[in-house]
Amino acid sequence: MSRKAMLLNEYLRERFGCKVYKIALNGGFTCPNRDGKLGTRGCIFCSEGGSGEFAESARLSITKQIELGKEKVAGKIKDGKYIAYFQAYTGTYDKVERLRALFTEAIEHPDIVVLSVATRPDCLPEEVLDLLEELNRKKPVWVELGLQTIHEESARYIRRGYELPVYDKAVKDLRARGIEVITHLIIGLPGETRQDILESVRYVCRSGASGIKLQLLHILKGTDLEKEYQEGLIEVLSEDEYIEILKECVDIIPENVIIHRLTGDGDKKILLAPMWSANKKHVWNKIQKYVL
Known about the structure:
The protein has helices at residues 8-16, 62-72, 96-107, 126-136, 152-157, 164-176, 194-206, 224-230, 239-251, 280-290, and strands at 20-25, 81-86, 112-119, 141-148, 180-187, 211-216, 219-220, 258-261, 271-273. The strands form two sheets. It has a seven-stranded parallel β-sheet, with helices on both faces. The chain has a two-stranded antiparallel ribbon with strand order 7-9. By secondary structure, it is α/β, with parallel strands linked by helices. The chain contains ten helices and nine strands. Strand 2, helix 3 and strand 3 (112-119) form a beta-alpha-beta unit.
């Protein structure tokens, strides 16, 4: 790479001295964009699984989910460790007593080195921040914030449900408590130009986030975005377009921001477009050749 910023795998190996895999967990949460507080249909791109298609059933204990996750990658990892990743829906949207039980069970597992929680910036009340700070004294806690874009017109279109200052406050509050923040952005939102995307990347890198995830927009079956795609109202990026934009994004990410993701996986059972993204190995090879 022409810059010093690290990809996640390199960073984890340097920090923990071994291979570290993420295990997607399902805490049985919902979302204010689904339970009626803000809406009932979720963000326009969000699947029925709340982005947790690769997690186990929420009916299983957290310990059981971790063990099943370990089994899935047993052939790829020896003497490694794991990140407990609460991925599905909004990972802090529940009573703090229940969050304490779930997060503590995960973080106290001997093979877990990091607790990572995906959530919304508007779902971090003081008592949840207190809990995360407390757990962060046991093992590192990461909070992953779904920002997706800094542009308010796009945010309204995707039904994000909060304005940019809410994100700013969340990052400030988390960093004040020593908690690392990873911010999610979507590349390819309808109506956004290349310059819009780069502005979002620059903003996140200045915001105090310690990590960034760049996610290709997927059209998933069962989402409201699917309807617009089927009606011909929106288009998706071609592979070459995505690679070109991604390279421009990576080139402006400073060395103090860890790159946690460069594309993302859509569950093939519900992926409608772009279908080229389903060939993960091919896409990663092109990223390595043209982006890194």
